[in-house]
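Thread: quick sanity check before group meeting

JM: Hey all, I'm pulling together slides for Thursday and realized we never actually wrote out the predicted structure for the chain we discussed last week. Dropping the sequence here so it's in one place. If anyone has concerns about the input, flag it before I start.
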Amino acid sequence: MLLVYTSLNTSMELPFSSAHCVLLHIIGVRNAAQRKLLDELGIPAEDVPVDEFTTLGRILYKAPSDGR
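JM (edit): ok, ran it. Output follows.
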């Protein structure tokens, strides 16, 4: 099964300053994804341990500022 979770966090628009910062962000995103699986899909945390998650990468969202 493939589940995709995206974290929309505007503070992450700045470049990461260190490998430690990247690791902390990945851990935070995994924990948030686990919470969302319970909140939105009813899947309990024990069924989806975060240490089995795979980080695929980052997604750049872009939308025109004029609303089109």
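AS: nice. The chain has one helix and no strands. The longest helix spans residues 19-41.
JM: adding both to the slides.
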